[in-house]
Specification:
Shape: elongated
Structural class: alpha/beta
Number of domains: 1
CATH topology: Rossmann fold
Number of strands: 7
Strand content: 15-25%
Helix content: 25-40%
Order of helices and strands: HHHEHEHEEHEHEHHHE
CATH superfamily: Vaccinia Virus protein VP39
Radius of gyration: 18 Å
CATH architecture: 3-Layer(aba) Sandwich
């Protein structure tokens, strides 16, 4: 378990890589977004919205969406893409909206950064009674051999969080439901390198460490039989999504 300081340092690193994050990271599969938003009434908050990957999916569905993120640079990209979205700096522990403002709060690729003891009551505050909290993660499917090797070369094991288990949500949230979606992201070789460059455990390395990772990934793509000689390839993902209703 990493310290709060380590978590904060890794979370803050995205300010240095907002554009490459936006270019390289995938969005979320339609099946997962549909499950998270099914039956929702009222405005939606994309909390930890980053550059607006999920925000864009939500607005395309005609939902009334606001966005919050702690990174000014990530919000810069989001505002360029989605100028109509009400976007603010903030965190899950301090959400800059009024009580009971939303019918749904979504946190995609970000719940592992938060202090859950403080975030859960704050999210509950901005949700209407009967509103929903939804969490989602895109994760590489490392049951595939070359994808597992990719993670090892990117030094993903040095990440500042451990999200192998399901999240735990305290009251006033009710039972947690889970949904999984298997899908693939089409990537070029440069796209895969940018994907590595967008990860916090890459951004926080020194220049020599970053160069070593890129060199190793180039070798993997040049020599691995599933990748060698191909201009593009498919990176398999599993998207884990969760939802729980605010009771009371």
């Amino acid at each position: 378990m990493r310290s709060r300081r380590q978590l904060d340092l890794h979370a803050a690193s995205f300010d240095r890589a907002a554009d490459v994050y936006d270019a390289a990271r995938p969005s979320y599969p339609a099946d997962a977004v549909s499950w998270l938003t099914d039956g929702v009434e009222g405005p939606v908050l994309d909390l930890g919205a980053g550059t607006g990957k999920l925000t864009a999916d939500l607005t395309e569905r005609g939902l009334d969406v606001a966005a919050v993120d702690p990174s000014p640079e990530m919000l810069r990209v989001l505002r360029q893409r989605l100028p109509e979205v009400d976007a603010h700096e903030g965190t899950a522990e301090r959400i800059p909206f009024a009580d009971a403002a939303f019918g749904l709060v979504l946190v995609a690729q970000a719940w592992h950064w938060v202090d859950a003891d403080r975030a859960i009551p704050e999210v509950a505050r901005v949700l209407r009674p009967g509103g929903r909290l939804g969490l989602s993660w895109n994760e590489r499917d490392e049951s595939v051999g070359w994808v597992r090797e990719l993670g090892e070369l990117m030094d993903a094991g040095s990440a500042a969080f451990d999200d192998e288990g399901d999240p735990v949500l305290a009251p006033p949230f009710g039972p947690l439901e889970k949904h999984e979606t298997h899908w693939v992201q089409a990537l070029s070789h440069d796209g895969l390198l940018d994907l590595a460059r967008s990860r916090s455990y890459f951004i926080t390395k020194d220049a020599d460490g970053q160069a070593a990772v890129i060199q190793s990934l180039r070798r993997l793509m040049r020599e691995h039989p599933d990748l060698a000689g191909r201009e593009t390839f498919e990176l398999p993902y599993v998207t884990r999504s969760y939802r729980a209703t605010r009771e009371g």
